Amino acid sequence: MAHEFHAAAVFDRPALAGIDHAALKQARIDLAACFRMAARLGMHEGICNHFSCLVPGRDDLFLVNPHGLMFREITASNLLVCDFDGAVLEGEGRPEATAFFIHARLHLRLPRARAAFHTHMPNATALSMVEGEPLAWAGQTALKFYGRTAVDEHYNGLALDTAEGDRIAATLGDADIVFLRNHGVMVLGPSIADAWDDLYYLERAADVQIRAMSTGRPLIAVPPDIAALTARQIRAGDPESARLHLESIKRILKNEEREFAR
What we know:
The structure is a single chain. The chain is α+β, with helices and mostly antiparallel strands. It is 40% helix and 13% strand. The protein has six helices and eight strands, in the order H-E-E-E-E-H-E-H-E-H-E-E-H-H. It has an eight-stranded mixed β-sheet, with helices on both faces.
């Protein structure tokens, strides 16, 4: 199901001049940690899904996973630095084609999206396949996302051209999460930590909603005014909570999968 992107590879050191390499190294470690923990939690699908983040201090370069590796194999050093034309400026290999056409266009069109995580994680993807609003706003965890979601209703097959990424970016607008009908989800964040935190809790919210739906009994939605209040309460603590969440998974991985950071 994965398709390799075939732009010419480049190793262009001048294009990387002026980059804070210490910050780039840390971004590599943080992003690799997200891949590894997503694999542990079953939030991946073969070699097909992809996470990206803008290179620190740059709005025109991004880190992304190379084609051919499962999430549990990814290390900090084998992530690729790419530009928006598809040139690989640092790293070995190529991005998967849909990774390039989605992520390059999202980062180009929505520079607020410092990180962009795309998965086919099972519970959130299941909700992308049913009629109506994916989240029912019936559980507290889901209220983290109240007023922050969009739905791309136009499934057109694999994202193998720039039009797909542009359409997803336009659908997102000011939202942070987009359910891609019949496909999966995309989570945007102002940092790797924020994107990870939202990805994790989105799947948890979808999981508990599906369990509730499986009883066959009607869901009890939270009233809109309380939902909006709760969303504001959750969001007030999100930046610090997300930072601590990412630090916690890195501590676990440093004890159990130390190679992720190499």
